[in-house]
Amino acid sequence: MRALVATLFALFAALAVWSFAVAPAHGWAMPENVATLGTSVDELFGKIQWIVGAFFVLTVGGLAWIVWRSAQGGGGARSALASHTKLEVLWTVVPGAILVWLALVQIAPWEAMKFSSSIPRSADGKPKPPLCEVWASQFDWRALYPGADGRCGTGDDLHSPYELVVPVNEPVVLALHSRDVIHSFFVPSFRLKQDILPGRETLVWFECTKPGTYDLLCAELCGWGHYKMAGSVRALPRAEYEQFLERKTRELSSNGMEDTK
Amino acid sequence: MGLQMTRAPHRPGLLCCLALALTGCGFDPGPGAMKLSLNPASEKALADAPKERAALEVLLERLFGTRAGPRYELIDAWKEDGTDPKHPDRMLEGGARAEFSPEQWSAIVAANRERLAYEISHAPNADSSAALADTYPSLAESAELFRTQCLHCHGVEGGGDGPTGATISPKPRDFRKGIFKFTAVKDKARPRREDLEELLERGVDGTAMPSFLRLSLPEREGLVDYVRLLAIRGEVESLLVAGFQDDEEIDDAAAAEALEIVWGRWQKAREKVIAFDGVVPPDSPAMRARGRELFLDPKRGNCVSCHGAEGKGDGALAFKTDAQGRKTPAYRDDWGFEIMPRDFTSGVFRGGSRPIDIYRRVYAGINGTPMPGIGETKGPDGELLLSHEDLWALVHYVRSLAERAH
Predict the structure, then answer these.
(1) Residues A61, A101: one domain?
(2) Minimal Cβ distance to B403: which of A153, A163, A252
(3) A138–B208 C-beta distance less than 8 A
(4) B210, A256: Cβ pair inside 8 Å?
(5) pLDDT by residue (tens digit) across B106-131?
(6) Domain harbouring A231, CATH code
(7) 3-state class of B356 per DSSP?
(8) ipTM above 0.90 for this complex
(9) Does B280 touch chain A (CB under 8 A)?
(10) Which domain CATH number covers B312?
């Protein structure tokens, strides 16, 4: 019985290593990163995964070995639990040091992503104005692009339900808003996640490096329909992005005649 | 001393876990051959007439099928001209698609190429890959999509009585009356299929109805087909029940006649599109001022009576004072729910916020609600009360109310 348990432990460790190794090939891992900031997130994630993975294999492997040895009758007589100061210091200091190290190495990516001082600047040196507003509500996403006046909330706004369209290969700043409860703007392919509080404008920025359509999800349990609160981000070359805005502007001045055909 | 560890084996719990692991925890009864039920209103009207009730059930199932097998029984007029609402994509003589323009159909094919890219690239030959791109969902497939995407709010028969519907406000639309609020048509006509499809694209802002752009175009068109079937079924049902209440029989002839009447209603939509044959007069302070004047003028726009002087939806006409002295909505919509006029300053326009969307609301009103259309209202002198310019002035004024303070 003990041998079986030991084997299961060992198998468990092996299975975990194997699943991490084959995950990317099977699409079990995160989707391909297509944003500039995502690289640092992936690097950080990779580092943490290696550390956690190594300790996982070490502890579960050690456990398996001890159980196996005891199954073989080895290991000597069991003794009452006694403290072992050196060991305790070791297993407190080493993880502690690792945590401090992680806290230090995450500062730079976090600053680049989240600090307001990191919002990309326009040619004039001022922070880039938001490309559009993104409105979250139970349970959908709507993008609101400013019209010719450059401001949202006026008559020439362009509405894009479900779909957030952005130019590729340039920094994009978004102003996130919620109409009701707390939502979270999550684009896995950009490694970008940001909570949205009602009554407050929250800025995020990213630079997408590959044209395509990416999932936009809500990552904060926001009510019964949270599971289906999906949208999409479509990254287009600048010229096509301009065409999108032109099409939306044309729709705005529609006289309805296209519906009579 | 010491803590006594209980070592009671948790066998039942273990078994449950095992059973779950083996079967999965999803509960999916599948579409089954479930029947579409009668409207509770019909049940009530036919409570003392079990024979007629049974006849109605049989007839409706023959005309429209079941949840798993929705269908249309072809009426004579359809047989003559080749119409078949089961197959809106059908090729007619002369090569045109029955309900789709060439542009609409090529958009559907393009969407299929995107959606079925893998299947198309692995098709055995060019013919079968072309056939894949030409696929259009059947009514049964669309009913299944409706089951997973729409049913939990809109209900099995489209009665707006799904389980989730009870928890949301405003309530989900009951399709069975055939009345849809936000369309591009006048005279309370039924919606065009484009109106329903656009609604799926856009969602209804400010309500629990989201955009369904994540479904492909053919899937959305298929949902339109099925929603139309549920609506027509509901209308036919109420016509037959109304006939019974007028001492008419519920039989084959009555059913065929009802289906013909209802289908006629849906066909009229195409001729009823509201459009303005000209360039939309641009927004300007002068237009807004003119719009405000009409908005407040009790003899012309008179929007103020319900929407209030500042457009906050607090006009005197829309509210009454109940016995306890509380202010409550004075009107109900056609579905029996209390209804309040839109507060324009909220910035939310459920039927779309483009000028043409608001123009259509002002022109034809909102179906099923007390909001009247004033596009064709004539004054005491027999002339139109409002010119096109006047209507657009109102549109620009109403949209200006939705602007945020900067």
Answers:
(1) yes
(2) A153
(3) yes
(4) no
(5) 999 999 999 999 999 999 998 999 99
(6) 2.60.40.420
(7) helix
(8) no
(9) yes
(10) 1.10.760.10
